[in-house]
Amino acid sequence: MSSDTSTALSLTYAEAAALGLREAMSADPTVVALGEDLGRGGVFGQYRGLQTEFGRDRIIDTPISESNIMGAAVGMALAGLRPVVEMRVIDFALCAMDELINQAAKNRFMFGGQGRVPLVARMPIGIWSASAAQHSQSLESWFAHIPGLVVVAPATAQDNYSLLKASLACGDPVVYMEHKELWPNASTVDTNEIAVLGAAKTLQHGSDLTIVTWSRGVGLTLAALNDTQLAGASVEVIDLRSLWPWDQRAVFESCSRTGRLLVVHEAVQVAGFGAEVAASAAEAVGCRVARLGAPRIPVGYASVLEQESRLSPEKIARAARALLTAK
């Protein structure tokens, strides 16, 4: 939702996140950020100018040790701060799993709510061109599986502004997944728009097919609607935005009208979060379901191999047409 006195800015995905964090830090002195290279603006410019404005005690450059970064953030959160934890890319965050999953996610439950861990762990996901298998993973289903974690995946500059602020206000540990190739994408951001974690956005209404997606899949899905394979089809597109909690009401209501659901994600299709959405919708409303994700292979370095793991408008349109014409 947004107010009647909106302030519209043209910002990139990275600039929108930096603005959201800047506003949160200005409003709340307990918000801090820690990670590698934040002083120089971060790998993608998502912290540009913040150390100059807030100082080294609040925009904290750390050694190269993800477990120490995450562990320090958990301690900060338990002591009353609201840390933003920068993992650079999700692939590096694998070195901080114990601190996040066994400590941050479980603390509130194991100690009867005596402690809260209101941290936001920024873990950029997705294929990063010519960066190969150790820098191109989408592991959102790992974190959606863990009780105690909130999982967020913004697709636009607007959502990277609004959802980051909502995540900082959440009170529980949030795994915040920005896509590595969305950083330069620019669009209009209304700084008065308030995001609600767990609320999806319906980007296009339709009556023949529901497509549910998130992150970079959103733009590719909207582009697929122009493919001749979908000529004459009425397609509803839902950007999930939050993977946990996820907006079951919006998805089920759409699927009950269209009778068909295609879930699209860049992550490996096997055991991806799309399986949860598809199974839940099939159980709830009995719709026909299909999934489109990456093959179960490491992302290749060579362009021709990398393309095998990438989504494309053509692949999405082909999968949608197959579902529409299935008997």
Oligomer: single chain
Provide the helix percentage.
25-40%
Number of helices, where a helix is a run of at least 4 consecutive DSSP H or I residues: 13
From the coordinates shown, what is the CATH architecture of the largest domain? 3-Layer(aba) Sandwich
Average pLDDT works out at: 96
- Across the major sheet, the strand order is 3-2-4-5-7-6-12
Distance between the termini: 40 Å
Descriptive report:
With 327 residues, the chain is of the alpha/beta class. It has 2 domains: 10-190, Rossmann fold, CATH 3.40.50.970; 201-325, 3-Layer(aba) Sandwich (Rossmann fold). Helix content is 36%, strand content 20%. The chain has 13 helices and 14 strands. The chain has helices at residues 13-27, 50-54, 66-78, 90-93, 97-104, 107-110, 140-144, 157-168, 217-224, 248-258, 273-285, 303-309, 313-325; strands at residues 8-12, 31-35, 59-61, 82-86, 120-122, 150-152, 174-176, 186-190, 201-204, 209-213, 235-239, 242-244, 260-268, 288-294. A 7-stranded mixed β-sheet has the order 3-2-4-5-7-6-12, with helices on both faces. A 5-stranded mixed β-sheet has the order 9-11-10-13-14, with helices on both faces. A two-stranded antiparallel ribbon has the order 1-8. Strand 10 (209-213), helix 9 and strand 11 form a beta-alpha-beta unit. Helix 9 packs across helix 13 (313-325). The relative contact order is 0.13. The model has no long low-confidence stretch (mean pLDDT 96).
